[in-house]
Amino acid sequence: MKNLFLAFLIILTSCDKSTPPESEPINKIMSLGASRVEGNKPNFTGPLLADEFVSFRYDLWKNIVQDGWQFDFIGSEFDYSDYPDFNNLSFDGDHQGNSGFTAEDIAIGIESWLEETGASDVVLFSSPGGNDALLNMPYNAIIEDIKYIIDALQASNPEVTILLEQMAPAHSDDMTTELTTYINDLHQDILLIASNKTTSTSQVIAIDMFTGFSDAMLADDVHYNGLGAKFIADRYYSVLINFLEG
User: Fold this and answer.
1) Number of domains the chain contains
2) Domain for residue 110, yes or no?
3) Range of the domain at 173
4) What pLDDT was estimated at residue 21?
5) Do the beta carbons of residue 38 and residue 58 sit within 8 Å?
6) Mean pLDDT, rounded, for 23-37
7) CATH number, domain containing residue 144
8) What are the residue ranges of helices labelled H in 39-98?
């Protein structure tokens, strides 16, 4: 009788092996912004040319892959360019860069994008207010739009980490007195926004993209060439690495 009972327990145990649920991908990263995020179709048949306009996303992706992190780039847009594989992996082309978009455009779209993609763990907010500055949009409206975007990101995920760029400048030939003042004011207000919008669960971190940046890193008036893309990617990664999980 005892042996029969043990056999029954063994059968029950063997039948109770349920399939574990699929785990959510960790380190969901959204690159948010305009053309500096979106980039242009790069030509990787040879060395990138100085006037070839590319996004920082590929170099950042390689940095994260190189160190063996589990992660997922997310966004409602996809980059269909042909990027070389790295460490036997194909480039993750998801992003949220929309060429020409102002802070107002991003504020209008952010909630619907988040509904489509799901919440981000980390958001890289590229050049907030950059196109607005070039278009000489009302300054106070830019600040309010940036705050609104951060609020929407935190509403979607109260534990989101947001890296908020103090943007790299345009080409020195284009940096008029007015534009220089505009961007310098944005740099200072980004520091204030980051401090004021940080909560007990969500860090908003200002990240300096202008110190050390030079004209040699630009493909045209405002867009990164290969050198600039790597500069931006490396600077993002130097901060991002402190917030990746796993």
Assistant:
1) 1
2) yes
3) 26-240
4) 42
5) no
6) 89
7) 3.40.50.1110
8) 57-66
Q: Would you say residue 175 lies in a domain? A: yes
Task: Look up residue 29 and give its amino acid.
Answer: I
What CA–CA distance (Å, rounded) separates 90 from 158?
31
- Residue 3 within any structural domain of the chain: no
Confidence band (pLDDT; 50, 70, 90) for 228? Answer: very high
Q: How far apart are CA 104 and CA 207, in angstroms?
A: 21
Token pair for 167? 């943007």
CA angle, residues 90, 91, 93, in degrees to nearest 5: 135
Distance (Å, rounded) from C-alpha 27 to C-alpha 150?
18
> Is residue 9 predicted with pLDDT exceeding 70?
no
> Is the pTM of the predicted complex or chain greater than 0.85?
yes
Instruction: Quote the tokens at residue 108.
Output: 């209008």
Q: What is the mean pLDDT of residues 103-111?
A: 98
Rg value, the chain, Cα: 22
